[in-house]
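Quick start: what a row looks like.
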Amino acid sequence: MMYPFMTLTDETEITHSEMLPDNKVKVYIETPNEKDGFHHASCYLPDYTWENVYGYSNAEIEKFKEILESTAHLIIEFSKEVGFENASNF
């Protein structure tokens, strides 16, 4: 299951999984696009492995990487607590 984390001003949605058995967290990024429907990419934390990148430029992926690097500690914490609404101290 994926849990909402952040919505950017361009309607890009960032969601995350619960902590996976291999201690990784899947982060899924999706942006609506009139021509293609949606652009999307998956990134696995904590090693920032990208896969299934569709429609995003290298510059856009770099922007998303910066966002994830600045918030990875929160995403990992939330993944252990199964989402923002159940996270401790929030």
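That is the whole record. The chain has a mean pLDDT of 91. The radius of gyration is 13 Å.
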